[in-house]
């Protein structure tokens, strides 16, 4: 099973890059996860045709915050995955977000705009970076989680 992971799009409309992501790298994923800062709810239409799970972030419009929860937990294969945006300083973010989840194997998050694949104890922390505004990292990115007997993640840059 492959999950397409995106966060921090910070868009007010569907862009050519989002359309190309769905036609290319996300073409064969079974589900798309968006870890918040979608900005406007219409952006989620770009993922039509795929199972979609998203959470709201700190920069999302009231419409997004009304429709999406701040965090979710779900099963993908035999793994429990937590999905959250995150908040505050990038320093210590993994410790802060972990407190909100119990019994998860992986936590997908955003907020920092910095891609990260990091195993802490038994939990894989996965941040795809920013798809729509690489002002902190300098590059736009997304990720893919591969789920089988194990769970692993990879970051890709535009």
Question: Would you mind describing this structure in some detail?
Answer:
With 158 residues, the protein is mainly beta. The protein has a 5-stranded mixed sheet with strand order 3-2-1-9-10, with no helix packed on it. A 5-stranded mixed sheet has the order 4-5-6-8-7. The mean pLDDT is 93. The protein has a single domain, classed as Purple Acid Phosphatase, chain A, domain 2. The longest helix is centred in the N-terminal third of the chain and has 8 residues. The two termini are 23 Å apart. The chain is globular, with a radius of gyration of 14 Å.
Tags for this entry?
single chain; 158 residues; mainly beta; Purple Acid Phosphatase, chain A, domain 2; five-stranded mixed beta sheet; 3 helices
Spatial arrangement of strands, main beta sheet: 3-2-1-9-10
> What is the overall shape?
globular
What multimeric state do the chains show?
Answer: single chain
The largest pleated sheet is described as: 5 strands, mixed
Q: Which consecutive residue ranges, at least 5 long each, have pLDDT under 50?
A: none
Question: Helices and strands, in N-to-C order?
Answer: EHEEHEEHEEEEE
Query: Whole-number radius of gyration?
Result: 14 Å
Q: What top-tier CATH class fits best?
A: Alpha Beta
The fourth-level CATH homologous superfamily is Metallo-dependent phosphatases
Could you tell me how far the N terminus lies from the C terminus, measured between alpha carbons in angstroms? 23 Å
| Derived structural class | mainly beta
Q: What count of structural domains?
A: 1
Helix content: 10-25%
How many DSSP-defined strands? 10
Output mean pLDDT.
93
User: What is the level-2 CATH architecture name?
Assistant: 4-Layer Sandwich
What is CATH's topology name?
A: Purple Acid Phosphatase, chain A, domain 2
Q: How big a fraction of the residues is strand?
A: 25-35%
Helical stretch tally: 3
């Amino acid at each position: 099973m492959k999950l397409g992971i995106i966060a921090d799009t910070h868009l007010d409309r569907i862009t050519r890059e989002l359309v190309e992501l769905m036609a290319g790298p996300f073409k064969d994923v079974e589900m798309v996860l968006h870890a918040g800062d979608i900005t406007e709810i219409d952006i989620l239409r770009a993922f039509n045709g795929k199972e979609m799970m998203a959470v709201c972030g700190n920069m999302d419009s009231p419409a997004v915050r009304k429709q999406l929860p701040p965090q979710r937990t779900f099963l993908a294969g035999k793994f429990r995955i937590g999905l959250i945006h995150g908040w505050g300083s990038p320093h210590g973010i993994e410790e802060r977000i972990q407190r909100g989840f119990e019994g998860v194997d992986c936590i997908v998050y955003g907020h920092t705009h910095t891609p990260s694949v990091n195993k802490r104890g038994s939990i894989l922390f996965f941040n795809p970076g920013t798809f729509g505004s690489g002002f902190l990292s300098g590059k736009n990115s997304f990720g893919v989680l591969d789920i089988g007997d194990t769970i692993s993640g990879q970051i890709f840059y535009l």
